[in-house]
Predict the structure.
Amino acid sequence: MIGRAERLAAAVRERDLDLLLVSNLVHVRWLTGFTGSNALVVLSADGPGAGTLLTDFRYVDQVAEQVSGEWTVIQATQDLIGPGLGEHLGRIWPVEGVARFGFDDRSLTVNALERVREALGDCAQLVPAGGLVEPLREIKDAGEARRVREAARLADRALLEVIERGLAGRSEVAVALDLEMTMRTLGAQALSFQPIVAGGARGALPHGEPRNVAIESGSLVTIDWGCRLDGYCSDCTRTFAVGGGVEDEARAAYDLVLHAQESSLAAVAPGVECRDVDAVARAIIDEAGYGDRFGHGLGHGVGLDIHEGPRLSRLSEATLAPGMVVTVEPGVYLPGRFGIRIEDLVLVTNDGHEVLNGLPKGYQEVE
């Protein structure tokens, strides 16, 4: 947590704000380490200490365990955005005049904003200030990168155990539940997201939900899964051939996606435009005639959220920098026939990148 409040305070000053209200609980956790379900942070641009954390009596002991002493903690009512907020502001900002009070217009609801306005009255000018925390979160420090790496390795181990138990004849739901239970048994805190297990023609649905339908021999099955460890997510996808007899076009398409994935992965390095990495995979798939069958972006950032910045897409204006963690996941999807996606989780380093998961990617036939 060291330095995060100072970096955010610098961004607050650049927006010409006096204070920033942080209401997104993931942002609160990133700033303070607090994992409770009811908290607000008010950060001063130039005030003493890191800022103020408001929570209620249910979390007093938890705050003491998780939050460093540089934060001022105020025990408020459970309704943090209530009349008391204005009273607390007097303690947080003991300065004459009206404070320019930034709020995250990307996450604060209209209803909550009106209640904040009522609570603060004339002592604060509310200023939309979304997008201050997200760019800071994109750059992972060494501890964050380690947590993502460990989550990825745990998820790898879990899938290997599930594959050893076989896929053919088991339902997609059974495989997904097995994968979830195995990750939790190995120590995962939670899932990053509900696993995708999509066999045969269902593989053409990038986010197909597992069904109570048996995985057939002679088909492809796509498995997209991840876990949370100490709050941080992993994300990986592998597509397997179940038994023999997969159709020739599907086999060739697999090699195409693998080539696109490995080529775009090789382009990941600091200073590279995110859209340029996306373009590497897209050009390969376009040239093979499957351009209209690769409809999503190449990847996204991963951290405390499973989907965060930066985005690897044609529309992205971001540039890769050391500390960013992104997925590289091209795919080809033929409705009614099959789908293929191959995804790695990648840390951008000072001189290139590090792939955080270690499962093989070549065409694999499994039982």
